[in-house]
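Support request from a user on the community tier.

User writes: "When I paste my structure tokens into the form, the page sometimes reloads and wipes my input. The last time it worked, I copied everything first. Here is what I submitted, just in case something in the input itself triggers the reload:"
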């Protein structure tokens, strides 16, 4: 058994993708089969095998995935960002209000969404990198600030983005066009760019080095502050991008929400192989993790359970992934 497993690990495609990622891909197929079998039993013949269900799961995976891509950079440096969910909602609220109340051009409102996220990321990065505040405390503070700013800007009212066939609703084509999941291709393309930044550039290598040994990097003459701040800027920017895909799928945004998406995005990261201790990150793993989280959510709802069950499973996934990471690091040491 052990010999067969070792031979499997030595296969070219397994080495290329990574054994852990291959296992996660297998989990996706197992989950799909599990929900396909149980859904008709629990819901009196209702089928889980449905193209609309796949599209619904992908809609959820996009914004969770973008949040996960951003926070992967932060976790790689050894930090954490709990503000990404509320920042996403704040970006969607402000840009949506500019569109519906101030009649700003749609393209400019999409830019505003990304810019709002980048501003929050810059603020968080400044306090962590230059003022040496703990990332945990900084992100919790910004989480509350984002909730408050979004509520104040929209006067505590929800914002509904244009839908249907109006000229101002073309942003929805970024998510789905004529039943084609365009958002999936955009998501993969941006994930590829994030992978290039993290693995093939000086900035990415410094971010990973910060997570491994920040003091050693500083003593080698590197200005660690700007690279650490860049990680938080990336996280905030991706939250702004996630806002566009959230409203593209669901149109209506309510103030004061977004907390639960933090845990799901972080779960996608750690499940995919990004170490909470920093120094090790997987963009591909985050993409696969986001799909697993989205499929889990769709399956739970399809079987007739409430979303509360997903919260329980997400928490258990985070505990399990972090525990496995700690055990792996102890073995390596």
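"...and here is what came back when it finally went through:"
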């Amino acid at each position: 058994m052990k010999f067969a497993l070792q031979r499997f690990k030595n296969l070219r495609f397994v080495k290329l993708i990574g054994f852990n990622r291959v296992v996660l891909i297998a989990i996706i197929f197992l989950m799909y089969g599990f929900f396909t079998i149980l859904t008709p039993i629990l819901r009196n013949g209702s089928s889980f095998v449905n193209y609309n269900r796949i599209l619904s799961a992908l809609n959820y995976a996009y914004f969770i995935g973008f949040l996960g891509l951003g926070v992967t950079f932060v976790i790689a440096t050894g930090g954490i960002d709990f503000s990404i969910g509320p920042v996403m909602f704040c970006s969607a609220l402000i840009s949506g209000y500019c569109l519906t109340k101030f009649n700003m051009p749609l393209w400019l409102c999409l830019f505003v969404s990304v810019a709002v996220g980048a501003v929050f990321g810059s603020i968080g990065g400044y306090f962590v990198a230059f003022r040496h505040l703990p990332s945990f405390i900084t992100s919790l503070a910004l989480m509350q600030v984002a909730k408050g700013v979004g509520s104040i800007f929209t006067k505590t009212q929800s914002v509904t983005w244009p839908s249907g066939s109006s000229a101002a609703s073309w942003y929805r084509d970024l998510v789905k066009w004529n039943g084609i999941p365009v958002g999936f291709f955009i998501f993969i393309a941006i994930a590829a760019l994030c992978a290039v930044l993290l693995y093939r550039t000086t900035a990415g290598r410094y971010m990973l080095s910060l997570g491994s040994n920040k003091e050693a990097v500083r003593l080698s003459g590197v200005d660690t502050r700007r690279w650490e701040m860049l990680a938080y800027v990336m996280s905030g920017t991706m939250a702004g991008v996630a806002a566009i895909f959230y409203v593209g799928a669901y149109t209506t945004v309510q103030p004061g929400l977004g907390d639960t998406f933090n845990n799901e995005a972080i779960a996608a990261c750690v499940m995919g192989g990004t170490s909470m201790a920093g120094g090790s990150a997987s963009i591909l793993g985050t993409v696969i993790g986001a799909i697993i989280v989205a499929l889990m959510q769709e399956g739970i709802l399809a079987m007739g359970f409430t979303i509360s069950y997903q919260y329980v499973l997400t928490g258990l996934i985070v505990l399990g992934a972090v525990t496995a990471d700690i055990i792996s690091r102890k073995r390596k040491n």
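Agent notes: The reload is a front-end session timeout and is unrelated to the input. Strands lie at 159-160, 252-253. The longest helix spans residues 224-250. Escalated to web team.
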